[in-house]
Amino acid sequence: MGGSIADRVRAQYERHPYPPVSALALPRRKPEAELALDTGLTLAPARVFPEHPRILVAGCGSLEALVVARANPRAERVVAVDLSEHSLQTLTRRIQLARVVQPFTPQAPIETRQCNLHALNDGPFDAIFLSNVLQHVASPEALVAHLAGLLAPHGLMRLVVYPRESRLWMRALQRYLEARGLDAHTQAPRRTVTRHLRVLPETSPLRSTFFVNPESSSDAGVVDAFLHEHDDPLPLAQLASCMHRAGLVLVGERQTPSSQSAFVGEVNAQVAASITDPWSRLELLDESLELCANPVFWLARGESAPAPHTASTTRHVAGTVQVVDQALHVSGPLGSLANVPAASTLTSVVVPNPIGASLACRVRRLDDLLARVGISSDAWIASLAREVGPRVTPPPHSRELPGLALSDYDPHALRRLSPPVADADLDALEAWLLSVHGLVPSRPGEGASLSLRHAVHLASAQGSVLADSRVLLTRS
Ligand SMILES: C[S@@+](CC[C@H](N)C(=O)[O-])C[C@H]1O[C@@H](n2cnc3c(N)ncnc32)[C@H](O)[C@@H]1O
Questions:
Q1: Is 309 domain-assigned?
Q2: Same structural domain for residues 423 and 450?
Q3: How far is the CA of 136 from the centre of ligand 1 (A)?
């Protein structure tokens, strides 16, 4: 699919404005306290703030700006900016409808503007709301820096982001659906995704990831959550340093308590005593797949914050390639294929299961994060199992959903897994198999060929995440 990321993201939201609710849906009359600037000001109380602030809702979609205008009725103006014309038209109709249906509900005036946020040349704003947008832009760092430049010195930013690692299963599902040929243009996405999931085992975590997600109940929600044109959240350590570089200081978190940095203390008091910086604690929870709610941050301009700790350990692992029983076993970074043994009778390629490998990366990262404070990650994972346990469906039934939590797995078994093969290396291997051996991956049950990376993602969804993924080969 061609076009820049912004073009493709815009086209998606032209077809499916966010949120995926009826164009006639109005916010509740009672203002949302969470979106009131007073909430942010209780966290950063020393600010001298104007009586009638100017507010920017950046990447506003079709509803958020109206909710913000009601939560802050004294605002001079709410500037609602989005790439998508359809989203802004829907927002405008909603504002008109609200005026007729709920004429006495106080709300600030809203001005809509269609443009790319990178090109917005306005301000200063006393407050900026940036919710669920950063993961959809090509350079989140550049966008944060640009928006920070539009914020008044006393200003506040309310930021909502996707937690990258805690969405491991969502990402695995996105890859599985992509491998089955689905994308943001798929017709009848909800029905089609449901059909493609039926071929997976009943207990597959990919199935539960879809069926328990509230976004799965509408076509627009399914596209937004699972077939998005560009969904690439920053790791929390990177988000922390990007905020620091933009001169923004974290003043408070407002997501559900079990996804706040303080939750580390509920899980393990020793870890909480050793890791006190909120960003590092959030990184620990994210690497543990425990940020089940999107983090909600209030940030303020500030010069004096110490740089957050963001050092990451890069493990240098060597790749291996060998032929065993007519199967090419590959793991880790491939490097040159010149030394791959010639084997004219290859029948399959075997690689580490990418989902298992991703879980193993989380355990190794926890090993690194906790080794710095002299705590064993096995002890931390054991406290997660004890204090948090497996994922469950919402009450009243609270049925367990095995396999979604990191603590559902034995960390030793995960550490024994071989390092993953990157998609780019799978592409190179595919080209090599074709040019040297005339072989292509075969689509299970159909014989038709598909790319090696897609074949690996399909195979990874079928078996145990601890077992290698095998892709059969056929003559081209
Ligand atoms: C997931 S929706 C979130 C909408 C709203 N903030 C909310 O939380 O309800 C992401 C929105 O960001 C907009 N968007 C993405 N990239 C943008 C950019 N570079 N400039 C302006 N809007 C953008 C999209 O068009 C879309 O409406």
A1: no
A2: yes
A3: 8
Protein residue closest via CA to atom 1 of ligand 1: 132
Judge contact between 352 and 331, C-beta under 8 A: yes
Domain boundary among the residues 206, 226, 246 is at 226
Tally of domains in the chain: 3
Residues 216 and 267 in one domain: no
Atom 27 (ligand 1): residue with closest C-alpha?
Answer: 61
Q: How many Å apart are CA 83 and CA 283, to the nearest integer?
A: 31
Cis preceding-peptide flag for 73 (omega within 30 of 0):
no
The Å distance, Cα 404 to ligand 1 centre, comes to 28
CATH number at residue 286: 3.40.50.150
The alpha carbon of 101 and the centre of ligand 1 are apart by a number of angstroms equal to 27
Average pLDDT, rounded, for the chain:
93
User: CA dihedral defined by 121, 141, 259, 166, rounded to 10 degrees?
Assistant: 130
Task: Say how many C-beta atoms besides its own lie within 10 A of residue 387's C-beta.
Answer: 12
Q: What would the pLDDT profile of 159-194 be if each residue is shown by its tens digit?
A: 999 999 999 999 999 999 999 999 999 999 999 999
**Of 226, 257, 279, at which residue does a domain stop?**
226
Ligand 1 lining (C-beta closer than 6 Å): 6, 9-10, 13, 18-19, 59-61, 63-64, 81-84, 87, 116-118, 131-133, 136-137
418-463 confidence digits (pLDDT tens):
999 999 999 999 999 999 889 999 876 655 668 999 999 999 998 8
| Residue 307, domain member (yes or no) | no
Q: Looking at residue 63, what is its pLDDT? A: 98
What's the domain range around 20? 5-164+232-301
Residue 315 lies in a domain: no
128 and 29 together in one domain: yes
Q: Could you give the percent of the chain with pLDDT greater than 90?
A: 84
Residues 184 and 127 in one domain: no
pLDDT tens per residue across span 295-319? 999 999 986 555 555 555 556 677 8
The predicted pLDDT at position 285 comes to 98
Closest by CA to 305, choosing from 279, 287, 272, is 279
Say which DSSP state 442 is in. B
Q: Among the atoms of ligand 1, which is closest to the Cα of residue 84? A: 25
| Residue 201 shares a structural domain with residue 342 | no
Alpha helices by DSSP H, 201-262: 205-211, 219-226, 236-245
Ligand 1: which of 7, 18, 232 to mutate, judged by most atoms within 8 Å of the beta carbon?
18
**pLDDT, tens digit, for every residue of 153-166?**
999 999 999 999 99
Which run of H or of E encompasses 295?
none
Question: Which protein residue's CA is at the shortest distance from atom 9 of ligand 1?
Answer: 64
